[in-house]
Write a structure and sequence with these properties.
The record marks 154, 210 as: Positions MEP for the nucleophilic attack. With 232 residues, this protein is of the alpha/beta class. It has helices at 34-43, 60-69, 85-93, 113-126, 168-181, 188-193, 214-223, and strands spanning 5-11, 28-29, 32-33, 50-55, 76-80, 100-105, 128-134, 141-142, 148-150, 158-167, 200-203. The longest helix has 14 residues, at 113-126.
């Protein structure tokens, strides 16, 4: 089997929890748009054969301009997304012709190539993988009245990240099935799990944060590696 790898970077959200007028994926992180950091990591990897970026229909042209301006080292196809993350991923998938696909959030710019490689290796060995970290806090289930109803065993709880890696044919089938039944999930793995494909968890990084609220951007600015400056 040919093992060609495609990457879908989703960046079509509004970033409402960030509370800025500009969509959060375009905010500057150490003088560079967040999504450009993310694209640079994948574009530099020899394992990656095709790249698609999904963004808002109104942002397609300026993203192409940025990609040109920052001299992203691989060809990146920029396409318009949908109203939910799931719709955006599905639109991106249709532009790939690879055997494998890695889906990654454009707003996880601290992803490291080593983790991308581990996720790819695990998926190619087992069929499907997601990056994740064990939760550090005790997690409670709370009802609508603010009363605790359960304390699940923390040892089985993981906080799920991206990349999420699958055979393209499996992920397309999972997306078609979800679309058909009106199922809406918050990650790609949920859709694959529900068609009965086991998904392997790969130990991710606590630094592979999804920039969601303003303090995440502050943390990312502390951690991001800038040219000529190695921040631990
Ligand atoms: N319709 C959407 C919604 C989300 N995303 C992308 O999915 C990733 C994870 O989503 P999240 O962090 O929830 O982003 P937003 O939806 O933008 O944030 P919020 O929920 O605060 O509005 C982001 O890279 C986001 O751009 C997308 O491509 N299309
Ligand atoms: C896919 C994901 O990054 C896993 O954590 C996440 O579910 C997407 O973001 P959202 O905040 O749930 O929309």
């Amino acid at each position: 089997m040919n093992n060609q790898v495609g990457v879908v970077i989703v960046a079509a959200g509004r970033g409402s929890r960030m509370g800025t007028q500009e969509s959060k994926q375009f905010l500057l992180l150490r003088n560079k748009p967040i999504f450009i950091h993310t694209l640079e990591i994948f574009a530099a990897m020899p394992e990656v054969d095709e790249m698609v970026m999904v963004t808002g229909a109104e942002d397609v042209e300026r993203c192409r301009d940025w990609i040109h301006q920052y001299k992203i080292s691989k060809n990146v196809r920029v396409v318009a997304g949908g109203s939910e993350r799931q719709h955006s991923v599905y639109r991106g998938l249709r532009h790939l012709q690879t055997d494998w696909v890695m889906v990654h959030d454009g707003v996880r710019p601290l992803i490291q190539p080593e983790l991308v490689r581990s996720c790819l290796e695990a998926a190619q060995r087992t069929g499907a993988s997601v990056a994740a970290v064990p939760v550090k806090d005790t997690i409670k289930q709370v009802n609508g009245d603010g009363i605790i109803t359960a304390t699940p065993d923390r040892r089985s709880l993981w906080s799920i990240q991206t990349p999420q890696t699958f055979r393209l044919s499996d992920l397309l089938r999972a997306y078609e099935e979800a679309e058909h039944t009106g199922f809406l999930g918050t990650d790609d793995s949920m859709l694959v799990e529900r068609i009965g494909i086991p998904v392997t968890v790969v130990q991710g990084s606590y630094k592979n944060i999804k920039i969601t609220t303003p303090e995440d951007l502050d943390m990312a600015a502390l951690w991001v590696k800038t040219e000529g400056e190695d921040i631990k």
